[in-house]
Amino acid sequence: MENNEYNVIEKEQRDTYDKFFGGRGNNIFSESGFDEMQKARNYEIGFRIFRVFFWAVYFMATAVMAAAIAVKSTLVLVIGSAFMAVCDLFYLLYAAKVSSLGVMNLDFAKRMSQKSILIVYIFVGVVWIMNLFLGSATAAAAIMMILLSILYIGLYICAKRNMKVLEKMLKDDSDSGEK
Amino acid sequence: MSREVGFRLFRTFFWIIYLFSAFMLMAAAALESVPFTAISAGLMALCTVFYLIYAARISSKGALNRKFAESMSKKYVMFFGIFMLVVWLFKFLVKKGTNFEVVAIWANIAVMYIGNYFCSKRNMKVLEKMLKDDSGEE
After folding, report:
1. Which residues of B touch A50 (CB under 8 A)?
2. Under 8 Å between Cβ of A77 and A65
3. How far is CA A115 from the centre of its chain?
4. Per-residue confidence of chain A (179 residues) as pLDDT tens digits?
5. Is the Cβ–Cβ distance between A104 and A139 less than 8 Å?
6. Cα distance from B105 to chain A (closest Cα, Å)?
7. In this structure, which long-range contacts are made by residues B84-88, counting pairs with CB atoms below 8 Å and at least 24 apart in sequence?
8. Are the CB atoms for B110 and B84 separated by under 8 Å?
9. With an 8 Å Cβ cutoff, are B36 and A38 in contact?
10. Which residues of B87-108 are buried (b: 16+ CB within 10 A; e: fewer)?
């Protein structure tokens, strides 16, 4: 088959997710072969389910940490901590990605970008790290509070970035408007 | 834009939590801890429920991945899912020779397969109706 202007061979584009699962349409979340409308529907439905799923999982992670205290098992504590850390990691990944695009919820970003958030949660983190090492609190409680502090510090940084991206966008718009 | 970001993260998050819950279920069995087993099984069931909710909502709009829908709408998928479910429940309830966590994992997979079948069938019907409506308008 000749490759000329009348017979252009389209390069098959597969995203990382499809490559990982070994082909197009191998599982339910694959986007391959979708037109723009199908993608938009998937994103809308998937995003809304994601929010609820995330919080349900986060709540269960907290339940596992509580179970670790009740059962007094180091293994349960390690698993619960890893579980909660994964939730926090995805939360921060989402925050980082949306803030880099400047599409974080504006009210949330304004609240989270206040310096008091950073100061309070650095303080909370330091206090609970000290509690953990001094043994004056249960490990599960200390780990939960340390993870929460990391989460809020991360959110502060992401919210600040979001505000900067928005300022830059407004500045670029006003500069191009003047021209 | 945030929806696209959220969706892409969701699918990765979902699979990680699903695998994590299977691992937790195995750990719970090793520890022989009833509360931990209950939490792990509950988490896996939660993953399956959300999977099915997603499949049901997407298929009602006819927006299920076409290749996936075509492969999952075949009758043997349903028979396979029902067969797996019946076999593992039978082993657990009647023969009493199988651990709960093994049954829980296989039962979840079986339910997902059965759900995939019904959602894929609905997706194909919705697409047929959309095509029929489009050609009817012409």
Report:
1. 6-7, 9-10, 13
2. yes
3. 21
4. 444 444 343 344 456 666 666 555 567 887 777 778 878 888 888 888 888 998 988 888 888 788 777 777 787 788 788 888 989 999 999 999 889 988 888 899 899 999 999 999 999 999 899 888 888 778 888 888 899 999 999 999 999 999 999 888 888 888 776 65
5. no
6. 18
7. B84/B109, B84/B110, B84/B113, B85/B110, B85/B111, B85/B114
8. yes
9. no
10. ebeebbeeeeebeebebbbbbb
Q: Tell me the residue range of the domain where A150 lies.
A: 34-172
Residue type, A100: S
Domain limits, chain B: 2-137
Q: How far is CA A96 from CA A40, A129, A179, in A?
A: 22, 25, 32
Does any domain span residue A57?
yes
Which tokens go with A128? 């609970």
Two tokens, residue A91: 């939360």
In a domain, A56, yes or no: yes
Round to whole Å and give the CA distance between A139 and A4.
67
Rounded Cα distance, B60 and B3, in Å: 19
Q: Nearest to residue A159, comparing CAs of A113, A102, A93? A: A113
CB contact under 8 A, A50 and B9: yes
With respect to residue A140, please indicate whether it lies within any of the assigned structural domains: yes
The residues near A120 (Cβ < 8 Å, ≥ 6 apart) are: A152
What residue of A is the nearest CA neighbor of B10?
Answer: A50
Question: What is chain A's length?
Answer: 179
Whole-model pTM?
0.81
